[in-house]
Amino acid sequence: xxxxxxxxxxxxxxxxxxxxxxxxxxxxxxxxxxxxxxxxxxxxxxxxxxxxxxxxxxxxxxxxxxxxxxxxxxxxxxxxxxxxxxxxxxxxxxxxxxxxxxxxxxxxxxxxxxxxxxxxxxxxxxxxxxxxxxxxxxxxxxxxxxxxxxxxxxxxxxxxxxxxxxxxxxxxxxxxxxxxxxxxxxxxxxxxxxxxxxxxxxxxxxxxxxxxxxxxxxxxxxxxxxxxxxxxxxxxxxxxxxxxxxxxxxxxxxxxxxxxxxxxxxxxxxxxxxxxxxxxxxxxxxxxxxxxxxxxxxxxxxxxxxxxxxxxxxxxxxxxxxxxxxxxxxxxxxxxxxxxxxxxxxxxxxxxxxxxxxxxxxxxxxxxxxxxxxxxxxxxxxxxxxxxxxxxxxxxxxxxxxxxxxxxxxxxxxxxxx
Length: 418
Hints:
- This protein has helices spanning 63-66, 137-142, 279-285; strands at residues 2-4, 7-8, 32-33, 37-39, 45-48, 53-56, 59-60, 68-70, 75-78, 84-87, 99-101, 105-107, 122-125, 130-135, 153-158, 166-170, 181-188, 191-197, 208-210, 213-220, 231-237, 242-251, 267-269, 273-275, 292-300, 309-317, 320-326, 331-338, 341-351, 356-364, 370-373, 376-381, 392-395, 407-416.
- By secondary structure, it is mainly β.
- The chain has two domains: 2-103 and 274-416, Exo-inulinase, domain 1 (Jelly Rolls); 106-269, Sandwich (Jelly Rolls), CATH 2.60.120.
- The strands form nine sheets. Strands 5, 6, 7, 11, 25, 30, 31, 32 and 34 form a nine-stranded antiparallel beta sheet that branches. A five-stranded antiparallel beta sheet has the order 13-16-21-18-19, with no helix packed on it.
């Protein structure tokens, strides 16, 4: 038996290390010890994305033999060491806690959000307030942001002389009247994150109070669907307050996403398209078409996404595949499609009730389908259907590239059924 020990981003009990209302929900959980994962020998494919321990056809394998990433933009990530670094175009996002798989998102803000050199496309409201660009290199380095904010410059909204609320707002309005979410890194007190309307006038109600912090921390504001798309990202400072901020962001989404750097125009982080190479060779070599089983460990950081979150999909195309996903109601779902129609849908009776580290075990075999997961009593079992041809395998997205996990896969394995 293989015994792969790993460090995890989650406590064993699944408790989170901070309140989800404080940092954005893409932030990770505090590290603790992982239990060992026991695997039968040989496995067809096993990837411990957290430690880089990879097996293919029962033998140690290189990352390039295990998975291939296609993404035509860099992606910012934060490792367990707290440092923020870029994954280059086409490089997988492996920040030390798993394989991060996100869909496509655009930061609508058009200012220079990582390395400001002036007040281009960012303005302030409040007569007594001063908005400026200042050096804050030491505080950025302490927060692990120096690799991204390399100039050491940040925005400073100084309302120390103000008797009323002041605000900074960034150009780049909503894409539509659908929910958008603001986020940023900041240090300061007596501030709120929300939105401004046309001309920079403040928008009351749609704001989130940010806790006082002497060091830079990440935060997100409320998801907001306005009556008009003429709304912008905005940060508010109360009377007498001063706040430093950087990496401001506005995305068309009901949740915050990892920061996307802008340099005077809106910027897009494209989806990570991740596949297992030569799966059409691996699958018949291990007779996976006759049935397979496996385990996945994921980092579930949110509940109630507006669309399903795919953990993996295996088959030939969207109409002929097996897909493991979390549905919009937070239930785990294993579905089989043949000829463009659902042949089998296996769904847990219970939904995930809380975020945390989720261990998922499954069996895909005619007459012996099953699905189990931590935090979900009873699982789901039974059903009979033929497996589609296993010519390709995707990680974290469905065929066609949609329904992305928008989170991290810590571990994944595929085993033949003897």
